[in-house]
Protein 1
Amino acid sequence: MLTLGSIAVTLLGLLFITFVIGRVMPIDPVLAIVGERASQETYDTVYLQLGLDKPLMVQFFYYLWDVLHLDFGTSLLNARPVSEDIARVFPATLELATIGIIFGVVLGVPLGVLAAVRKGSWIDQIARVVALVGYSMPIFWLGLMGLLVFYGILGWVGGPGRVGIFYVDVVPSVTGLILVDSLLDGNWDVFKDAFSHIILPASLLGYYSLAYVSRMTRSFMLEQLSAEYITTARVKGMSEWDVVWKHAFKNIRVQLITVIALSYANLLEGSVLTEIIFSWPGIGSYITTALLSADMNAVLGGTVVVGLIFILLNILSDLLYKVFDPRAK
Amino acid sequence: MAETQTMREWLLAETPTSRRHAKISALYQGWLSFRSNTMAMIGLGILVLLVFIAAAAPLLSPHDPFVQDLGNRLAPLGTDGHIFGTDSLGRDILSRLIYGARITLYIVALVALIAPIAGLLVGTVSGYVGGWTDTVLMRITDIFLAFPRLVLALAFVAALGAGIENAVLAISLTAWPPYARIARAETLTIRSSDFISAIKLQGAGPLRIITRHIWPLCISSLIVRVTLDMAGIILAAAGLGFLGLGAQPPSPEWGAMISEGRRFILDYWWVATMPGLAIFTVSLAFNLLGDGLRDVLDPKAGE
Amino acid sequence: MMSTLLDVQNLWVRFPTRNGVFDAVRGVSFTLGRERLGIVGESGSGKSMTGRAILRLIRPPGIVEADQVNLEGQDLMKLSEKDMRSVRGQRISMVMQDPKFSLNPVMTIGDQIIEAYRLHNSASKADAYNKSLEMLEAVSIRDAERVMRAYPHEMSGGMGQRIMIAMMLIPNPEILIADEPTSALDVSVQRQVLDIMDKLVKERGMGLIFISHDLNLVADFCDRVLIMYSGRIVEVCDADKLHEAKHPYTRGLLNSLPRLDAPRDRLEVLERDPQWSEAPSVSGSE
């Protein structure tokens, strides 16, 4: 159970880890700013400006102060504030992961329930194979294969990127979610094109959450179906369908919420590799690109934001827990 | 009687004659139930084969995995002497896959050593000592759990520099918290049991209790968890390799090979496909084995 | 004695296992009138399985077979699953051991009782609500309106079991199977729950199958007793004549209980004769 105090401590720990990583990095933050050819004088000025002469604890507090004001420094690549960059790329990831999780939950929960109710039947076997393949397949490879087959050979979907080059920046960005923006603008062509681009990476992410969600649903359901209150429901003369959905399923809602929240958080993060494969301009691509070009502020800023989302989703699932479980009140 | 007793009867005896007998007999019965699980046996078979391939790589591979032949680059599947074709530098893909098995095993073995041991240490100390130590250690564990794993690993590799060893470290750093949780939970149940009190009365100190009595009892649930995690470790390592943060060229690491082949995916699909299939096969094998082991060692957790 | 409600002939319950088929109930026959029939036996004797088999609640891979399970002229073994559902609850109901587990933890008690009623009666929600309130009061629950809104975890064991009884009796069944209904309760409330159950069963002229491991309780509470051992009925006797029982197993059970009127230094340990489980089942028909 998360309390406000433990959230604060977790948050602090998260920031401490990113801070330490930032200090250990084999990149001189001063050199990165002033360049190789700067004079010793310029170097020293920047050194003092960054507060690098202060003790580590003091530096950590500076860092905390900045982060609390959503200031992650400026990107060394484009000299813009990292927070602005993140605000720009994040909607792309959000859009992708949200469609992915909807896909995973809409298919995964019924599949898991069916597999539990008909344990050992062909549908249980299918659910098992789906999950095993999901747990064993490298996501970036499956993404490549998907591109090869559905884009390269069959031509059914759009290729990499969020929209084709003719549609870039056609609709004004309101929410940053291109499917929503194009609808708001009433521009069907952009919507269709964006949809054909998102469908493949989103199904890919959806498949991974489907594998996880269905497996967890199945084992939660099996546990509930062997409970005595299920026998009570049957003794009452309920149909099997009602026994499953009105009684057993009600009891797994709480656990399911936690699993779905976790899976959603994993998609937001797991999209790193997917975004690379599909040239998707989201936070995963952003962190990776920054990493490869040694843009430390951008890497740490991105990491903190993803960590924050993790914690937020945890809090959210905790709140929902209290809504759905009478025993938690 | 004793002379006519077969090995099998001895192993399945209902009343063991000694502690060793009981132990061996329990192992044998576990093996029998494991053996009846076809999928788990397939997994085990694949992994044994993998170890063999890795050990005998120089004998098995038809070519040197590093020798380039630019005249014969991107040869398709089934080319003479190159069953799986060649990559963009004309290197034999099959030979590279065979040598890549060594890297995969190396990574898996290292992570499987570091992470559970670190977790076991943290978890048992936390569970046995309790109080403030427990609170602090578990809070740290929670912080690491709250972190997105791949992003954390990315950040670590960024700090430490790219390379296999650093990739192993980064993955281990993100992998230990669940083990600590498991070990702590086990310790808490064991700590309050009567036999621990008995040992305490005999004068055993905390160190002896933890190392000789608690650790052995945590092992089986940890083994199951490690085996099930193995596939995830392989995928994470391959992911880092794919991003260019793991094994560096010209190393035939499977993830890096996919990354190389990615540029030609539309025209020369096999270059990226073959290493992907290799990763899939091995992590599938670990998942199958893990499922089987869980059923034998930890029947409670079995669905 | 009186009209027969239920006639069970040659009932078997089988479970296929890795080492062959396990017979949990082996050819049990008995009848039930408007009476209180006790089934006694140790754990694993098949007494609970018998109760569940009558309601056809044994899940696959378990198999139930019988020459007949006749409920007032209707053979339950021949009914479709759908027809069986209208038998469950409405004509035969069951109260289980522990209300902590037999009530759905995330539904209010009111919802669970109303549901039991509306499954077999096309009543409006308001009618069902009032009916449920009445029923809760019938099982001596004060403050029934508050209980209707409460969740099972807020109830004590004794209250939980009374709620179970209310829920199971609300569709007005002819037969109630009570499977160890008081074993999980505090001794102090056991009697109270039994009395309430007894009163309702008598008032409504129902048949009661009372499954228990407690010989004295059954002797005290029931009219007739079947003693089960390893899936078979080894002896049938009237409850008031239980202490004259002849079968060595029953005698053994009786002798292994401490008695205030005949104190002994050492209680007898039950010696089991493999022949008991081989001997054919005694018929419990009247």
Protein 2
Amino acid sequence: MADGADKTPLSFQDMILTLHAYWAARGCAILQPYDMRVGAGTFHPSTTLRSLGPEPWNVAYVQPSRRPTDGRYGENPNRLQHYYQYQVILKPSPADLQEQYLGSLAAIGIDPLLHDIRFVEDDWESPTLGAWGLGWEVWCDGMEVTQFTYFQQMGGFDCKPVAGELTYGLERLAMYIQNVDNVYDLRFSDAVGDVAAVSYGDVFLENEKQFSKWNFEVADTGTLFAGFKAAEDECNRAIEAGVPLAAYDQAIEASHLFNLLQARGVISVQERANYMARVRDLAKGSCKAWIDSQSERWTAKYPGWTL
Amino acid sequence: MTDFLLELRSEEIPARMQAGARATLETLFTNQMLAVDVAIGKITVWSTPRRLALIVRDLPLETNAVHEDIKGPRVGAPPAALEGFLRKTGLTQDQLVQSDGVWFARQHKPGRPMNDVLAEAIPAIIRAFAWPKSMRWGRDSASSESLRWVRPLSGIVAIFGEDLIACEVSGISAGFATRGHRFHCPGEITIGSASDYAEKLRACHVIVDHEERQSIIRDGAAKAAADAGLALVEDEGLVIENAGLTEWPVPLLGRFDTAFLEVPPEVIQLTARVNQKYFVVNGKDGKLANGFVCTANIDAVDGGKEVVAGNEKVLAARLSDARFFWEQDLAHPLESYLPKLESMLLYEGMGSLREKADRISTLAGWIAEQYFPERDPDTARRAGLLAKADLATGMVGEFPELQGVMGSYYAEKGGEKPGTVSALQQQYVAAVEGCIPACVALADRIDTLTLFFARNIKPTGSRDPFALRRAALQTIQTVLVNGTRLNLKRLVQKSHEIAAANDAIRQNLENVDGAAVSAELLDFFADRLKVQQREAGVRHDLIDAVFALGGEDDLVRLLARVKALQAFMATEDGTNLLAGYKRAANILKQVGEVSGNAAATPPTDADAVLLAALDSAEPAASAAVADERFTDAMAALASLRAPIDAFFDGVMVNDPDEDVRAYRLGLLSRFTGAVHGVADFSKIEG
């Protein structure tokens, strides 16, 4: 038997705590989730905005992520409208980023001589963030467990230097490690003394039912459309006022409202491209305003750095 | 003479780029050697996901010495010129040589050590290397000028004989050390020379020769299947891809629940292949079985049990997704998806897919009525209407590659006629066979071509974003494979009419000259036909010669005529007749206006013989053409060959007697006219 195979696999929360300890030991600041509804960990300003500019930036955090169209009313064992991503940003990307990453898999109990770990081409692109990078999806026995990307552009601007981004799909990884077929059966926490263990279903099953219904059936589309417009206007006002962090919040808001509108099925194929372009403009405008607000400091601190 | 090894190690290179990268590396290295006039022996280039390797046998130890003469002033030029030349070259006058009254400085350049040449060539190759997509990384990427590579470049091994070639690119220095398999042998290993490279890597769980990995996968996958009494469904693309994803490939057989086999085999194969890069297997009955072969990159400590279990789980999740779509889609008849096509828009101003379905239906029915003896226009209309419905189903949303195939399954389950099922199934293939399928495929493609050409959107150069060339080619192939006798021009006009019945589209067609559009489309078809027939060995100039007559838009008839013409042109009669034709045409071109009154009777016997030949050949040729007896038409032309030769040998066209001259010009004009009745010989080359 390989190491760890006879130990009880990590609970969901212990997996997160293990990753926190692992990346903290490698110099990452462990941040908390951003307090807004986002579609992925990449939307956290600590990734989007901080991947711009010359300053080193090493952080790790869990980001609750919402994809309204993926909701399945709690009936599908693999699909959720709300799930967790574990996000690591290392800027500049270290030469041993792959080895550091593989070390993290070992830390949570994946033995690479027992499981087939592969780096399979997957170029990442976020049309709503005006961002792209090259990298892989990392496979463990044929299952994608991580998106591994070297950011090349963010908000339409070159990343100088390039940041390495690791995005772990926590539920998938946990299902793998715990060998369960249904996400709701995951052990979220272990029993301690008289206190019973908590399952993922205990925490989230009801959320999935209610939010699937709200996302697909209930959410008032008039309010959502108005909210999109309001966020768009406020984003532009904040850009004007030179407060790009506040502007970016509104870009995030607009992006999420757009996702909800899609789940409500009220955005046609043509309109879709148009809405995405509007969100992209907000994200790009926020990135540009962020660069404008920082570039004097950056060039003073890093002589020779140019946009 | 000695051997050279270069290894460029990087993070995982996409499998699909490895073959191109090998070719690029070989070309760049060869060019570097050509630039220093070094002939190279055998080059071997290998790739794995983590390295590109090049081995060159028998490189010389140094480049050739060269003698170079630098031209100086003329002998006897002013002394200042000579002094200037001596200063420039650093020579004395007695070291110069004379040739043809000019001073030359003879310079001897010794050969350069190959080590130095390689030390310069390697960084140049790396910097010049063009990847389909490349990236920056690490600390250096703070500058836009930093090195680009497909993924971060992590090491260089460069050994000539047993010498290290000292060189450096972007902070990476060449050395003797590389790394073995990522998990089996993660430490450094030292390479001694080109000759121990592959074996040292093999000892560290890396098979560097991609072809060897391919055969391990090909044979291993077949064996894994055979051991379980199954037959591998061969897939060379998957063999190559998996070889590009592994350094130590281990094919393993996995299973899935037989209950999934109720899903169409195409779906299972696509899921396994595209998403998971697995091979599928057949059972003894030749039908898809509940097994698959995955290719691991490790010799797992448990023999692969966990790896197989994990892969089985992933495939099961994917197949249950697929089964979900299959069941959902089947819950409603195919026709019920039509309303969803309303929100799926074609290119702007061309309406929705729903409207296109109606157009295909109408046109397919019309084609069946007009051109197919089986005549089942109702089924053609029904098949046309349903052709695109599967685009709104969940399965095709998930797997766009299955368009058509899924429609045919759903149509079959829904009790549609076999012709409809077959039409849906074949609609995206090149040559569509059978009456109903052909009607639908032709209607679909002609509609597309007509609309785009009417909007003046045509392929230019290499740009053909709407695949119009393919649509035309497939139209041709479908017409020819069925031997369908149809008039393309009428078909295009009908398509135009049907499109114009739609209000939105009519607005876009308002200022369009329909006749001009169909003429353009016909030329477009002619061009595609030439390209398509080139492979079959049909001469493009002969196609031109028939097209140039105008009015021919029946491709089957046109090709029959071209083929008869090609056979004729291969005969001695054909080539001589062509020579006679060209001579006649030249004379007629030079004369311009004919003066004088043609003589009433043939002035000589040669004139009389040609006249008689024309009198019999003209009606014979035109009757044969009308009856589509093209070989007979060629025979009628052949009967003119001896008389026209005798005519040119025996008489002078430019007779001093104006009336005789006019008579003969008249004969020549009749002769070229008779030839034109069969083909425009002026287009024929040779």
